[in-house]
Amino acid sequence: MASIREVAQEAGVGVGTVSRALNGSGYVSSETRKKIEKAARKLNYTPNELARNLYHNKTGIVGVIVPDLNHPFFASLVKYIEMELYEQGYKTMICNTVGISRREQEYLDMLERNMVDGIITASHGLEVEEYRKQVKPIVSIDRDLGPRIPLIGCDHGKGGELAAELMLQAGRRKIYLVSGISPNVMANDRYSTFTRRMEAQGVTVLNEIMEWNMFHWDAHYKMAEEIFRNHPDIDGIFGGDLAAIACLHMAQRKGLRVPEDISIIGFDATTPSNMVYPRLTAIRQNVELLAEVSVNTLLDLVEQRKNVPHRLILDVEIQSGGTVLGEFFGKNIKN
Amino acid sequence: MASIREVAQEAGVGVGTVSRALNGSGYVSSETRKKIEKAARKLNYTPNELARNLYHNKTGIVGVIVPDLNHPFFASLVKYIEMELYEQGYKTMICNTVGISRREQEYLDMLERNMVDGIITASHGLEVEEYRKQVKPIVSIDRDLGPRIPLIGCDHGKGGELAAELMLQAGRRKIYLVSGISPNVMANDRYSTFTRRMEAQGVTVLNEIMEWNMFHWDAHYKMAEEIFRNHPDIDGIFGGDLAAIACLHMAQRKGLRVPEDISIIGFDATTPSNMVYPRLTAIRQNVELLAEVSVNTLLDLVEQRKNVPHRLILDVEIQSGGTVLGEFFGKNIKN
DNA sequence: CTGTTAGCGCATTCAC
DNA sequence: GTGAATGCGCTAACAG
Lengths: 335, 335
Prior knowledge:
Two copies of one chain form a homodimer.
Chain A: H1 4-11, H2 15-23, H3 30-43, H4 49-56, E1 61-66, H5 72-87, E2 91-96, H6 101-112, E3 118-121, H7 128-133, E4 138-141, E5 151-154, H8 156-169, E6 174-180, H9 187-200, E7 204-210, H10 217-230, E8 236-238, H11 241-253, E9 263-268, H12 272-275, E10 281-285, H13 287-302, E11 311-314, E12 316-319
Helix pairs in contact in A: 1-2, 1-3, 5-13, 8-9, 10-11
The first copy, chain A, binds a DNA duplex (16 and 16 nucleotides) through helix 1, helix 2 and helix 4.
């Protein structure tokens, strides 16, 4: 509550000197410094960051836009983003779009209003155009927003191939593929590579397209119910973790044995994929690295440290689980 | 980038008039208003929120402190808090303490620096004293921080009793209770009521105390391993969702049948409790309501709308699942 | 080394 | 109705 002026008065010096003393900028004799520190302590002085922000035209806040914090992938992504930002002296402001693109837009507007210094977006609702209009720092995860906005993502294409290899190894012949639909999104790559590889071997691949902003567990559960009702003869399923887990649950409920009767592979290898029994075999994204790279790319932009590449692709790997027979690369099944 | 002064110049009026016109405060003739709006559009004017913040000494940001965003309970809590804050025109800043109380302290300091208008804390690391020192609005979830800080939480005591009833109904005689340890925390109530009720019926209750800031899945998994190694004869388990799910997984891995051989009850009824098979029987907190009440209580304080009660306890209910035989209140087992 | 001054961009008096 | 002046609290440039 006490201002710098009051401290100056109390210490019998000018405000400039107080500012220098407390910020360690510029020369201040150790004697007056002592006086100032004492006065500051006495008045319980805390600098008002709002005034600093105005002067520097910077808040030290980064906005993070995700579709749904309750989805385990985004929860852990935001967690690691926050941790990395904190390390670098920034704070994290979050936005759940929950499928409402107006909310995405509003947070984007905060860039112009100088409320945030930059934005990391992992949401796919708003028109690409709206993002392209912005001139301030933005980094995108998994969706191409044009040449001016750096894109970070994992190698979904390779992920799809790895999943296909697992399915072939297990001898599966009729697969259900649960995919999302959203243009310019890297996740599409995994479905196309998977399908191509499987069909090249004469395997049937049926496709369920879920609405792109559908992240509720219930929606996945209902979808799983439908799949098993309409296609009781499938012997393999590939989809995002939640879709895979919902199918695993449903398969068990129908009395099917996993992995003997049906193979299930997820994508992301989120925490819940380790909770189910048997543990879900899945393609793992390195979320921690993804967060770290996204933050550093954004801060390179914000602080104009250096030029950044437009596209950064991270590697994926197999999370060995118990939902596919005869694991890849000679790894054992682990429950 | 354009300031209010430039707009005033462009429109040939004073800055005060521009401010009034654009904010709808005070009288402005519709004629000059038109001129101003045109000038603003031409210059693509956006008000700089930093200047506004300084003037009003308010940011419209609320800090939310949680132990671990990757824990499904806190992920959904933060999700709903953010949604409610958004409805009321506020933004959400998050802090993962990940067990480090220094981080909790630093976010608390942002209150004094005016970076946030208030704080909702659901983390239990930092000393209560540090919170009591604060004079600005704070609301606490599940932990008593003294008479000046409103406390919101669910009825853990009733939750413990409901769990005990379920266990007794299932005829269990040797229970393992997984509890946390942290003083002043409401969650302790559920363990004491549960134990009291069970022991009154002559049931043995063994107790595993996990470190209070331990929220990793791996820690729960290892704990489950140990429980089954050291106490292969137990026939019931009660603990937080993650502990319960880890035990369910481990029981299945050991070849036990759930719920025939052992009953498992969780607390919170988070999303993963619906993913496992069979679905976890659990005591459900109404997270959405918890978030709503916390936000409204905090904003009552921030905006000095009205006085708030010091203690608000929300009801709990049973999530019917498939991990306890002979469900309560005649509800059927649902997988 | 230190005090004074001039903004940062906006919102609100108060004269006109 | 409207413009000019004042201040929110701080930092940085400048003169001393």
